[in-house]
Amino acid sequence: MTQTQQWNVTDLPDLSGRTAVVTGANSGIGLTAARALAGAGAHVVLAVRDPERGRAAAATVSGSTEVRRLDLADLASVREFAADWAGPLHMLINNAGVMMIPRQRTKDGFEMQFGTNHLGHFALTNLLLPYLTDRVVTVSSAAHRWGDEAIHFDDQNSDAAYDPRGAYGQSKLANLLFTLELQRRLTESGSRVRALAAHPGYSATNLQSHAASRVARVGMRFSNRFLAQSDRAGALPTLYAATQDLPGASYVGPDGWAEWRGGPTLVSRSRAASDPATARRLWTVSEELTGVVCPLEVQMA
Questions:
Q1: Contact between residue 16 and residue 78 where contact means Cβ atoms under 8 Å apart
Q2: Which residues are designated catalytic?
Q3: What gap in Å lies between CA 242 and CA 63, rounded to an integer?
Q4: Does pTM top 0.85 for this prediction?
Q5: Spacing of C-alpha 59 from chain mean position
């Protein structure tokens, strides 16, 4: 076995005295990550849309937790969550997401996948940056390679034609471009905070259960049962990115075939996800759409 294949939650460092926010922590990889972080001594804030479900999830976590309401599909909720924050925040885990759902809109009118997976986390991160002391980990996906691998700046809300798979791929590409530009800004501002990304490979969670296509839902149920790794294994790249000494803008995923499963390791991203010009353009557009401006002082290109 390689070193990364051997790495597991038992290798987490002592996180006593540290605070972590995990979005979407009421189930799946988010809940698994919350359990691991709390088990290592961190105080974990489960940031969830439904506080009742969040409290039920928190009851299954051994360690220090609290539940706070956060609806990433509602920028007012994002602002309220950030406004209520006080004290240092060591780790922000941007985990929550929706996948290949029927056409829907966020409360602010954005296409639901782009609005939730990218814009909601973009706003949350920038609003919490003044409190962050260590790192931001944003969960992307190998799906960032799907479709034409482009941010459709002339139609990011998929008004012209909605393809659930393509819209999901665009949102996951946006996650990686966001991480790239965030790290650039952190570096130029002299901040010690690091921005990293991770993806879980193919992991069996309830994320796939809301696909727009019945055929896709059936196929995913089959794949979840026979091909996917567990949510515990799927959370390892996130935990690795959150706690190991890695360079900023690193991307962590499974080391197995096609990055579907395996131990956490550094993985590559597409050329489109590595384009600094597109990353900067997306950042500017995201500020305009959300009304949330980066608090860091950096030089613009």
A1: no
A2: 168
A3: 18
A4: yes
A5: 23
